[in-house]
Amino acid sequence: MRILILGGDGYLGWPTAMSLAAKGHDVCAVDNYLRREMALETNSEALIPSPNLDDRAGIFEAVTGKKIRVVIGDCADYTLMSRVFGEFKPNAVIHYAEQPSAPYSMMGFTEARKTLNNNLNATFNVIWAVMKFAPDCHIIKLGTMGEYGTPNIDIEEGWIEIERNGRSDKFLYPRQAGSLYHTTKVLDTDLLWFYVRTHGVRVTDLMQGPVYGLSTPQADMDERLLPNFHYDDIFGTVVNRFLTQAVAGVPLTVYGKGGQTRGYLNLNDTLQCVELAMTNPAQAGQLRILNQFTELFSVNEIAGRVKAVGDRMGLNVRIESIQNPRKEKEEHYYNAKHSGLLELGLKPNYMTDDVVAGMLERIIKYRGMIDTKKIMPRVRWS
Amino acid sequence: MRILILGGDGYLGWPTAMSLAAKGHDVCAVDNYLRREMALETNSEALIPSPNLDDRAGIFEAVTGKKIRVVIGDCADYTLMSRVFGEFKPNAVIHYAEQPSAPYSMMGFTEARKTLNNNLNATFNVIWAVMKFAPDCHIIKLGTMGEYGTPNIDIEEGWIEIERNGRSDKFLYPRQAGSLYHTTKVLDTDLLWFYVRTHGVRVTDLMQGPVYGLSTPQADMDERLLPNFHYDDIFGTVVNRFLTQAVAGVPLTVYGKGGQTRGYLNLNDTLQCVELAMTNPAQAGQLRILNQFTELFSVNEIAGRVKAVGDRMGLNVRIESIQNPRKEKEEHYYNAKHSGLLELGLKPNYMTDDVVAGMLERIIKYRGMIDTKKIMPRVRWS
Lengths: 382, 382
Hints:
CATH topology of chain A: Rossmann fold
Order of helices and strands of chain A: EHEHHEHEHHEEEHEEHEEHEEHEHH
Shape of chain A: globular
Number of strands of chain A: 14
Helix content of chain A: 25-40%
Structural class of chain A: alpha/beta
CATH superfamily of chain A: NAD(P)-binding Rossmann-like Domain
Strand order of the largest sheet of chain A: 3-2-1-4-5-8-12
Number of domains of chain A: 1
CATH architecture of chain A: 3-Layer(aba) Sandwich
Largest sheet of chain A: 7 strands, parallel
Oligomer: homodimer
Largest interface: A-B, 46 and 45 residues
Strand content of chain A: 15-25%
Distance between the termini of chain A: 46 Å
């Protein structure tokens, strides 16, 4: 298959590109290094410096003999997207090309506006480029579980049937997200659903939980192929941040009461999920929504696990509650369905003690490169 | 009060500016003539040419002695919005500054993208300009009943309580709109709701139905003060189009089966509703949603009314069903609540035979200026 990966330099985009190229697909990765630039701007660089995307593709080819095409350019630029879709004619496009940080989107006007315009225009361009140049192409869009927020009722898998006075109808499950970044994903879903209904586009919208992990089978072949690993407050997700704090010997910083519960998944499961979506495509005129996570944890549970494993490894891990920089419920009901991907064949890699230990060991190798100034929250929600 | 009206040159913006200035408010109207430009581009000019906004304000002052401040500029430009909010420090902002045509938004990529970016960025800028320069300012945003689409259950007033397995929560009523234009209003609502929740902005989001009418008490003082009246397929709403077709002696063009049912209101009731929202502001941190219409009609009912009144006036009105250029249900359940504005004191001007006759008489005065080439649908949904 011809697979276009937008945001192909990212934490998920790059391992996805390698994984699918390794399986023999014709992969083209597009990126404009937006995340690298934002990380530089905000002093939030990844733990291990990565070669640029052209170089990564070169290293990957040297190691595996498999090519990954690279296009450096902006997915919010329709001229570029037209050219890429017109020339490559993908069978599937995996759309990761979004400003991915909630704290970044809450810094101020400029960052908020960049998040809104980048994310919406990238999605809009994908839809139109598909309609014009590759009408049968399956759009696989990375959304987020954060679109749903933390409602007091069960979270369904994308849709909800509502009954009222003896009548009923099916709707998108109501969404209310906790940051502007997450809200742009809500807008993306609205936009995709509109063009699915009116123009018969085929879309899988993956509501993904926070991802953790440092490597994948392809990255394990050469250290220079590792995905960019962020442990900072802006681009780092909570598991990756806690792991790094444990290694650095600073307290794991729980925001507020720590009862915040979310669905998490291993980086290797992201690769599985995206591939399962791709090999089992949505129908024309279908918006298929899948909740993409494998386990529910509260922040306190994650901190407890990292501490337990870290302590056994002699890290002497401390946990500290700090003032929550976000506006969010710190204790709440959370029960989210996630059967769709399991039915497609997902075999979860759960967060066992061995998995936690493996991640800690890997970070220990780079202990000297951790900058603890990058960990404490620098962005407040209001 | 100091009232900022964004889109102050529009069909609703200009009469609102006059109405509030006539009552002694300090009114500032901002517009960049986007709708005039789009009407010119698409050969869809209004029935009666209007003086520009500066001239209209001058005429209004000559007639009434009341000033309306005018700023010509783009609400999607944050530099302009910062200046206007910083200098004028409004108590309320009435936000009409959106590309308002569903067919225009469905013409192609360029028009769709212009609609998305203009509408979203204008709303985003309003939110940020309020937060930075006038934090207590009440945002009155014109949404549309079209945000809800045509669900098979009753349409509530903005919000819905959902019960599941013994638990319940309140959500934005699920929205699924019938055009990209209407979808941008869904995105606006999502965006407003986010900043209301996290930053305590105060917002009234008016879900307005299609508006009909040619004049208002202020416009009646001088013909040059009339709002721009569109009867074309792109900017004209269905009632105004049917009235014009009746006068022009061409058939009233019902799209498809004509069972499409919506909530309608008189232009004078828009003025009342917006003023009622303004004098009874939302609280800080409240997104108040009001369904703004007075009567439900199907397209066939409207055609029947115009024909009945027109025939009595000797117009010999014909009705013709044509292929529906839109993708929409032509027969459907529709029951929408709308008690909020009545509770605030709205006194509806219903679409009586006298009202229809009055509108027909006024159009008859301009009969020679009707261009029937502008009426038939030129934009198809797919």
